Amino acid sequence: MDLSGDLGVYCGKLLADVGADVIKVEHPGGDAMRRTGPFVADAAPMENSLHWRHYNTNKRSITLNIETSAGTDLLGKLAATADVVLESFQPGYLSAKGLGYDNLSEANTGLVYASLTPFGQTGPYRDYKASDLVGFAMGGYMYVTGWPDTPPNKLWGLQAYQTTSNRAFIGILIALFHRLATGEGQYVDVSMQEAVATTTEHVNTTYNYTGESAIRCGFRHGGQFIATWQCKDGYVSITTNTAKAWDDLRAWMERDGMAGDLMDEQYNDRFILRGEHGAHIEELVEAWTLTHTRAEITEWGQANHHPWGPVTTADELLGMEQHWERGFYSVPPGEEELVYPGSPYKMSENGWRLHSLAPGIGQHNHQIFCEELGLSAEDLQALISDGVV
To answer: What is the value of pTM for the model shown?
Structure first.
């Protein structure tokens, strides 16, 4: 049962895409996410959000007003047979309605109940509200994103939300595995701030050992052995984390007559990149990359076993032969104008698949409330008239 908003909807998608029967619970009239653009021009107004279509593939939809006593009762009955409840309300909100983990697990001891919130269920920040932007900032990632002489920057999209959903997905799977061994469900408390903090790589480790905060490195990785350079037709990433890669790069620049003094003995130690000559080296390298294309640098680097590659644009991703060859993209029947991204992994059995598109508002009300929960058609109609469904 997916009761989550933007913070957890991707977690519900991850579960649905690998085979879980995920019921998306919407408020009567439709989830607010349906109003998030961009939109498909010729589709019905509440069914045309690409945001909604992407995050709700393979789910079923019911409408339910849990602000009503009848709505909370129905949700409790549905949760009694559920494996997982996924929610992203403020701490304490569902418990106050008798729909918290302690309440629902009484009737369903194997229930895995995952709560995704900005700062978790405990601590002095538990009641603070936060957007994806705030999660990215307070998780520590924003401070090290950008250029040294500019304010901190945010990555494109909803990266903090996505990271939180990924961590929740992992936690839910671990809890389900635990249930296989013990028969017991459990409560999974996921903090967006903590989820983001786990993605900061070397930043926390560096501070723990040196007492110095990491700085924004712009086009370079923090270790300075990986950098992105402008070239003839865009940008390219060149990694020189081995002595051979550094020597090969210098030798190619020398053949082009653009190595400057980089062939001098003082530059044989690749760790010089960390030192006082960093700006000088960068000036020479970028002057050289501007004389080559992304393809030239990538193909030569890969041919010599170095992880060099182009910075790819969105249109190039969509047209990339590699993705189509591996079946990453799919075009469902009846949706020829839309291309759906798939899974970043392949499994020999029972892997990801797109078996149904995002549901319409309450598309499965009759199926779930009547055929599965046992209500009569008259009962359902009365609930609709009362604004419960």
So the answer is: 0.92
